[in-house]
Amino acid sequence: MGEQTRIQTQTQPLPHHETSSQPQPTAPVTETPTDLSQNPSYSSKIPVRPHKLRKLSSIAAADSTDGGDSSNTLVVSKPSTSTTATATKNRRRNSSQLARVPPSAIAPLSAAGEIDAALRHLRAADPLLADLIDSLPRPAFDSHQPPFLALTKNILYQQLAYKAGTSIYTRFVEFCGGEDNVSPDTVLSLSTSQLRQIGVSGRKAIYLYDLANKYKSGILSDNLIVGMDDKSLFTMLSMVKGIGSWSVHMFMIFSLHRPDVLPVSDVGVRKGVQTLYGLEELPRPPQMEHLCEKWRPYRSVGSWYLWRLVEGKGNSQSGAGTALEGIMPLQQHIGQQEKMQQQHQLQLLEPINGTTSFGACIWGR
């Protein structure tokens, strides 16, 4: 009995906070088992190893060699095969959808190679427009005016015949000391009476002052206008008194050379869509958007060809191929376009600031 007690005492484990440098005797195989259920204090003497958390599965092999208990290891689970397959399928579907989206044109039409890229795209996208492109000369978007000067010029030419608008604009520039001196400060320095002396109406004077004040307050600037995307630019310029959607579209095409503008309120473009697609009536803006959607991202160039189509209808090809400075409609058709504008103005969703071909003419000068 004493021997049995001695053996049990020697084989009892040390508490986990105690250490011993002496080797421990090995218990014989015939050791009498101890009933743990009847000895509640025995569990407090069982050594407890601190849990080791495995942060990354890639270090599992290193952890397993240090004697750690694998049952206490936190294992990072890998995604199931079905989840991986679903993610791959979604990526493939998204890639195929993006592949069907037309290329985005970022550079202005005056940049090198942009006109060639536009013509390639339009020819491939619309066979009817391809025939029109082949029958007319290449467009050119090479006018370079500061945004403030171009917007001021548009306001002065509104609702006037080309000759009258040119006369008023010339006198206005002389008052300012030349086109290089047309600035917000110069415009605000001119009184209403001075503007009336050169033929500027009181309403147009208000428009000019509003544009200049928005520049002075920092709401607008030439740099901001050039850097804005099309949607933001349309919103900001439409806030200026006297500048509506038609004026913004003309400015974006002929001054900033934006490649993807469809002037849905322009009578000339509406008439061109009607002629190109053989419609019985002038198309409304939603119908124009639908028909010209395939021209993206070069709807500005498509619109340019529609203007030329309307101008050249009933004239010789050589007459249709002669344009003012390469991008403006023919001056001899201005009167005809003004008449067309008056006939169809009531059909537009909002009033148009100026006449169709006449407006395009002043923007490029």
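Second entry:
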Amino acid sequence: MRLSPTRLLAAFLVAGIAPAYAADDTTQFDVTITITSSCDIHTVAATDVNFGTVASTATNVDQQGQLTVNCTPGTAYTIALDNGQNGADVNSRAMSDGTNEVPYQLYRAAARGAGDVWGSTVGGGGNVLAGSGTGAAQNLPVYGRTPSANFPAATYNDVVTATVTY
């Protein structure tokens, strides 16, 4: 009696004998990614520090603006503010109408104390804002004060550059 291939396979399976198959071989490979730190300070536009319209008798006029920074999680950063277009140093920031200048100051904290002045000095005794990235946009207030509005009636302005270093 001849067995057909189907009957032969059935006989092997009933007897617990598996037919021979090709051998196995394996290999491994890596899956990698290199993530670099990054910080972005300009995706969301900065909000101006606008002191508004005030009488020339006004003193200690306070307002605030906002910067938004988005850094890689765990990335340490500092944000510096320059002296503006009219200031020789952080203590001489001024808004100008082209002839006259109105002094003002920018601060890292709402208290607006002498130790809160926001500038561009890093290291010991520095006056930059330090933080750590979260991977999400972080809103950072910029507190401003002009001590006196006792200047000729005009519109005064200045431009400050914010720089994030990471």
